[in-house]
Design a protein that fits this description.
homotetramer; alpha+beta; Chorismate synthase, AroC fold; globular
């Protein structure tokens, strides 16, 4: 209710602050009997980890995950899986000068007004560091969904600032620090270098996809699969927009174009197009889930901005410290994890109401 | 869990089908002591009602709401408020020819595969008719929020198909059938007339705004105010995209531009711009909530489309019946209601954890 | 959250007041494809109905249930099942003299202090009349559980006031108005007649049993099957105590006696005794669920009691009107229904996490 | 949903196993601004701790709690409070001989059948050790409730096996290892010594009380305050019965006796008796909450019992290891904590719906 648990049947409760002793999460509801060890989780955490290229924050966190419970002799027991990640690089001094000021674009003002006090160290609870436990939980969901249905998750960057990135191949994604699906990322590097020199930042657009989806996941009215995806994505730090399938392009489409026609192919229903993005009436069609997300420019920049302090005095804020010039660069594994958590939740919801069978046809 | 209850503290449970005997909802958690009668609700229902112009479905439903419980001597008692709307115009015969086929762009395929059976009359549960009870519940939330904080909700259309609608004034909105904030809607009329002749449909982009928002509503991690707004909006029939504040335009913005600067004005904090859309770190800033939504073209069109039937045979589907050529035209009151329900939920959540005080400053 | 929805996966939202226009409930999460009609529900409602013997209230309510949604061509569709029961016998004048007084043993004082106002007609929301929709919802759960697992529910009275009722046979239960499992109920009749003459009332102890239980239903820590049973039973009007299995008798038992020994019988695990009441560690053993419940004496009595009014003046309260001299007499079908709702919820919860298989052995 | 989170607004998610690396919990929803440090929690943990007298298990666990998050500069921030307790004394070898057998009275059989596998070390998840994090969370709730309303919690033992313990004074409770409210506990010591020699165990009856309760906490239909108390108490390991107020004694009471009369005293409403146990219609009256709980005899005993193993072979089970001869002895602080968590949850629920005002009068 206070917003730190994601999901109901596969419920992930997240805790911690950027500069506290540790961050982590508790996964409740994981099906029993699945092989699970730290190595199954560490891979995705390493993809999200800071300090991996010169385009992301140089904070040095190994983000080593520990499984504290819920696994016995290498298998999930069906009881809560607690995952712990110690914070090791907490240079609080970096933030000393902004303790009493509200940084524009940050949650300082709202936390202070909501709670009457706030933990200012590294953004405290509002830090993107809290996405690490979600990536960890998402890895558990991904594993189960892959073993059960063969479902896979992948994502890429499709735009950085005003630079549109052509989709060439998924294979390029892991070959560059931007998760770009293109061979040549020199324009992206140039943009980043320019921003860094200018003490500025930019936004990004990311695409995330789930493939080999079971048919029939989702709920008809409120907990629509796409509604829960929108909730999950918009809940990630810095996200300002979410699209499913054709998204905002659907506004200018005609009904004759938009509705995806169905045919039989290899004895199975097949959609000729995917304007729906894999969801009709809130329920998965079996097509790829296609999600697109807008991420705002990093708010922590070296250029000064006008603001006020907690006493209402005018101040000028410059955010020193180790920040990503584009927070979207490291966001791909986060969005994949959130999508996996949504699909996992709906897989269990579907099984609760409708049983093991997935898809009449 | 099965997705027919919206909210937790102001929980609205929706029931009914397009062509069943009745639709309605139960509101649980409404604060006691608020004056409430049917007339307080009927106004918004009338704004959403079909048959009010030649640009919307000619289905003739009075949508008269009855309060069955939760109100005594004109005041809410704090117990569940059941709202009932009888369906009076259920011409099931209109739908006879599509009972066994999956209409492209509709939920037929997914319902059939999820549940193994479906109520095909008028779309059954997937009909946009089920938004009527939400408009009714939203009216209750709007009333409480206005009386408590002065908060108001309004919306308008900003694009119809490929026609962008300039914002001239909120006053125009109620003067035309499109909810357009412009004096001249002849281009919209021409577009609609053309689509109707062509047996086609188009999408729309709507904007919805909450003003005089309390500061501090929202939760830090998952139930962020903007995440819940995205969930609410994407859950409305035909919505394919949601933006908060600058939305997808934030991708190409620079950090120096995006982060809204703060100053003191009339003794209170004031944001110079509203790229945030009224939310920072998932919590309301007190600025207007600014939401933009993409609605896909109506899937029920007279032009034939290829599909299959429940046996897997290829069929051609033409959707006769009384359909809106653009479902976005009647959607404004729905989006307002959903936004009001989200704000109401968060107002109660905030009061639970932090007490009556709203905003430190 | 405001306490009018029971369950999460088989969620029953209850609404209405004793003397409002209607009472009812919405069942969300019912598995699709089950045959269901009003007659499947009416039977249990008739067992709970007032006016069926001289030992219960003479209020005359047919309690005719209507299915408003969620069923198509005689089968559940998986969408919300709304059940409506109109109130037809609402003699509000009976209650006129107690509108401003707090009746001892009633919820008048607490409702008034919680909400600042209350609906006094017939107890309003606190009336036992609101158990009727639960009996209706329970009938749906019973039907599914019987078809799926063969599970059945039954109950009886084991004590009325200070009269202990010997258990002779389940067959007697439907042959007398007390749900007594004994052939001779003359002592019970005598007790009731005496109480009526004295303007007094008494309590009752009831036993409720679920047989042919699946093994493995329940959760390990908080949503233990027995914890949820206790919650369900204590939530029924007038209940003051709940026991599972040996209950309070377990206090004086020795460990050597209490722990039920296990053996193999007909190739299956068999417990020699049932002190556990069918639950170990919060999870069903497959034995009968054995529950015992204490119901307090009816608070509405003709004998005068001291109290205060809303202004704090001393008053003497006599409750006229048509009241059950022992509310426990009609409670058996209510407790059966609540037990069925708990088992149903856990059946779906188990299926969500662990799949269709029930019981390893 | 999988039963490891207690509460909704003050939500405590519990994790860990008896012999895993650590146990703990995450508290979500704690009001911000309350002073909190480890010492505020450690006191109650020490009262529950094993090894404190010869009548409880000699397992040696310091149960030192660490606050990992949610507190900044000594004050709660409103974000999740993670509490961690490392397991230090995990002699798994003690349990080696029962890995494949189902101990009578234990959860071995049900866990194995539910999940298909189980962690047998020390009872794994079903160990009473998992009550330690609840005691810790309860201490946080107690602190807030005391500071806000002056509410206090206390408990005592009223029966040990077949020995009834007279209530003499609350002052005796902390002066003996049984939490007995009597000066002379020699009969209890004799009973314990006899049981230990006999390799046997016994049950206990405990009483737990909340004083200076706010009026108006609770919900009318399902989440009644007493229903949630029953749920909380029955969910504690080994509990088989729960009573509120007069409890099972209410069965033989008359209405003329049971309903507590109200008078004005010192200008405030005052109940002459407390058969209700502080709850009417599910809502607190302001009287003391009076709860009584039955705890079954310890199942881990040295006397042999018949059972089967996972292959269905007959086995004889003797539970060696370090066990409490009566698990009820250490249960008082646990029940206090659970009662505090229920009251805390309802305090926040009430504030959400009805605001800060508690009690009209």
């Amino acid at each position: 209710m206070s917003g730190n648990t994601f999901g109901n049947l596969f419920a992930v409760t997240n805790f911690g602050e950027s500069h506290g002793p540790a961050i982590g999460c508790v996964i409740d509801g994981c099906p029993p009997g699945m092989a699970l060890c730290e190595a199954d989780i560490q891979g995705d955490l390493d993809r999200r980890r800071p300090g991996t290229s010169k385009y992301v924050t140089q904070r040095n966190e190994p983000d080593q995950v520990q499984i504290l419970s819920g696994v016995y002799e290498g298998k999930t027991t069906g009881t809560p899986i607690a995952l712990l990640i110690y914070n090791t690089d907490q240079r609080s001094k970096d933030y000393g000068n902004i303790l009493q000021s509200f940084r524009p674009g940050h949650a300082d003002f709202t936390y202070f007004n909501k709670y009457g006090l706030r933990d200012p160290r590294g953004g405290g609870r509002s830090s993107a560091r809290l996405t690490a436990p979600m990536v960890a939980a998402g890895a558990v969901a991904k594993k189960w969904l892959f073993e059960k249905y063969g479902t896979t998750f992948k994502g890429c960057m499709t735009q950085l600032g005003d630079v549109h990135i052509p989709f060439e191949s998924w294979e390029h994604v892991s070959a560059n620090p931007f998760y770009a699906p293109a061979a040549d990322v020199s324009a992206l590097e140039a943009l980043m270098d320019g921003l860094r020199k200018a003490g500025d930042s930019c936004g990004a657009r990311l695409r995330v996809v789930a493939s080999r989806m079971p048919v029939g996941l989702g709920q008809p009215l409120f907990d629509k699969l796409d509604a829960d995806i929108a909730y999950a994505m918009m809940g990630v730090n810095a996200v300002k927009g979410v699209e499913i399938g054709a998204g905002f392009a659907a506004v200018a489409q005609r009904g004759t174009t938009h509705g995806d026609e169905i045919e039989m192919k290899d004895g199975k229903p097949h959609f000729k197009t995917n304007n729906a993005g894999g969801v009709l009436g809130g329920i998965s069609t079996g097509q790829d889930l296609e999600v697109s997300v807008a991420i705002k420019p990093t708010s922590s920049i070296l250029s000064p901005k006008q603001s006020i302090d907690t006493q209402g005095n005018a101040v000028e804020v410059v955010t020193k410290g180790r920040h990503d010039p584009c927070v979207g660069i490291r966001a791909t594994p986060i969005l994949e994890a959130m999508l996996a958590l949504v699909v996992m939740e709906h897989a269990l919801q579907h099984r609760a109401q409708c049983g093991e069978a997935v898809g009449k046809q």
